[in-house]
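Weekly structure sync, notes
Attendees: PL, DS, HV (note-taker this week)

Item 1: 5'-nucleotidase domain-containing protein 1
DS walked through the input record. Source organism listed as Balaenoptera physalus. Sequence as pasted into the shared doc:
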Amino acid sequence: MPEMAAALHHGSLRVASHISVLIYNSFAQFLVKEKGYDKELLTVTPEDWDFCCKGLALDLEDGNFIKLADNGTVLRASHGTKMLAPELLAEEYGRKEWKHFMPDSGMACRSGKYYFYDNYFDLPGALLCARVVDSLTKQNNGQKPFDFWKDIVAGIQHNYKMSAFKGE
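Item 1 (cont.): predicted structure, written out as tokens:
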């Protein structure tokens, strides 16, 4: 029985990974074709997927991704996909509980400045947004703030409009 459970679990991971790739590709194609983003977004390596994990918070203005511990301290952070050095991490977020963490609920508070990737369905979007930040950082010589979220929302509206699900 354990072998069967392991095989089923492995199969579900394979399906989930195919779905993740499809989600990523559909959004990347939209950003490149409709919004003029760099074509490098269309190329993803298997290693790129290592960036994805539940519990990331994206700072929509700075392009930083924050991973929180259960107690609300910042475990690590990256600018796009580039990890922040420990000194910069401490300078940016301190060594104490993150100010947007609510200890009573064990969750981060929702705000317009942050987007929280708290489910597996969102993870392709986390990777795409991180790679968008990398691309914009390179194009704009590191200038902030970033203003790409409206294009991500447009991609969601484009990819998930009801007419796309109607049979022919």
